[in-house]
Protein 1
Amino acid sequence: MTLLIKICGLTTPAAVEATVAAGADMAGFVVFPPSPRHVDLARGRALVAPAKGRLQVVALTVDADDALLDDIVAALDPDWLQLHGKETPERVAAVKARLGRPVMKALGIAEAADLAAVPAYAAVADRILFDARPPEDATRPGGLGRAFDWRLLDSLDPGLATMLSGGLDPTNVAEALRITRAPAVDVSSGVERAPGDKDPDKIVDFVRAARAAAATAPAAAGPRA
Ligand SMILES: O=C(O)c1ccccc1N[C@@H]1O[C@H](COP(=O)(O)O)[C@@H](O)[C@H]1O
């Protein structure tokens, strides 16, 4: 099974090209104004155009209402929606039904109890993305370069469609994959020079390290999507 690699928070054409050239599978675009990676819809539309057909386009939002989601779909025509806020399982199901697109739901993890929500979300989402739970005073719920204890995922059903994120970078992704055998990984801060400024060399290093690790420690049975 091939590892699925997502590079998130792309803000420039150069970052999109670097992501394609590095051999990643998915490109994430953040539509959330408090984020340093926020792209407005006009900019997002221009950025995704050259990615179409070369990468799966993921539109990331946080507790977006229907009007914003409709606008995002109209502008970006994403292959996936990533819901990274406090969306309930009912809201995830409603978004998926309304928009007819695959939905990835992010869950913040800090302790084993945070995984109790997985079955309810797995019943409605197409993939569950595990990120570190943000601190109470965080200005955004993700993209913080913060990792969690990957061993907390030990008890998960290996057949679940999941994605590992949170504080990954070229130096730790191999260890994260060795421990979790995740079928997919996602990175934002770990391939940047500064928040919102992607480093093409780090994107290459991340993809190379992740692919090498996956070749020696294949992912568990989770579907690749
Ligand atoms: O990237 C952001 O700014 C962001 C804002 C709001 C919600 C999620 C965000 N990013 C996602 O967070 C995780 C972890 O990112 P990092 O690698 O630790 O920086 C990842 O899924 C990003 O897509």
Protein 2
Amino acid sequence: MATTTSIVRSPAALLSAKVTVSDHKPTPTVQISRFPSKQPLSSSQLFNSVSNGSRLRVAYQGVRGAYSEAAAEKAYPNCEAVPCDQFDSAFQAVEKWLVDRAVLPIENSLGGSIHRNYDLLLRHSLHIVGEVKLAVQHCLLANHGVQLEDLSRVLSHPQALAQCENTLTKIGLSREAVDDTALAAKHVALHKLKDTGAVASSSAAKIYGLNILAQDIQDDCDNVTRFLILAREPIIPGIQNPFKTSIVFSLEEGPGVLFKALAIESRPLRNQPLRAADDNNGSKYFDYLFYVDFEASMAEERAQNALRHLKEFATFLRVLGSYPVDTTMM
Ligand SMILES: O=C(O)C(=O)C[C@]1(C(=O)O)C=C[C@@H](O)C=C1
């Protein structure tokens, strides 16, 4: 997959910058119509389009019809959703001012964490300014005229395949992973495949002209994916509505007690995953990063106290963002 991203060094250069954010669409010319102020966004600004009336540009990973596009549109109903071929391109598109926000999946109620995005959060310096939860209802799609018994194989995003594991096993289809669910639908349609279906959304069926053979094929009807909204600047944390704060930290000592006590997301450190133990035997143990979401705003004293305390024994601590909780699915 070809990803060509021009390195933009000054805001003026952005006006003529071209970026290929997806190789499945004609190369879009990115026009930055607005340079957001350096001021942090307030939480009330968060869900609105920009004040001069131009549409907010929101990067997502995938092609048209992907769940991530639906999540971007749920977060910002009037936005221009900009497809990116990889998660990393979406991060870069925000950093290079080619778009205003990125909306990326971070965890799913059935499939678990999307580890790649946890790693990318750390490698890039964007801020979490919101979250959006999306109910994911998968369909089994095929070309018109193709019956269920004609299929031997199904294509989809690995998370989607995992979310439909039991159903696909029952039907007896072999699985093949592709970059996103809508791309699977597009591939099946484009190549007029007769023996291969796609697990994707009903809107992907509409966009690529496929037939819906089965609906709601996920193993649990409560299949929810949580997406993070990322921006160049943090928002000013509020206290008027429920806020969440996401942090990442590492510890001097082994992960043991804290890990068990908090049951938090932990990932081996990428640059230096193993740490020598103090036992002089040359033994090593994994050095962990802990990702914690807690339900409090950084504007609250109790959150500031908790982080001050954590800072005393953490070898590394970063606040990834303090943002309003998405209460739409509660
Ligand atoms: O493939 C898509 O349509 C996506 O938007 C990606 C993705 C994911 O990464 O989890 C998003 C929501 C669903 O959980 C399945 C796939």
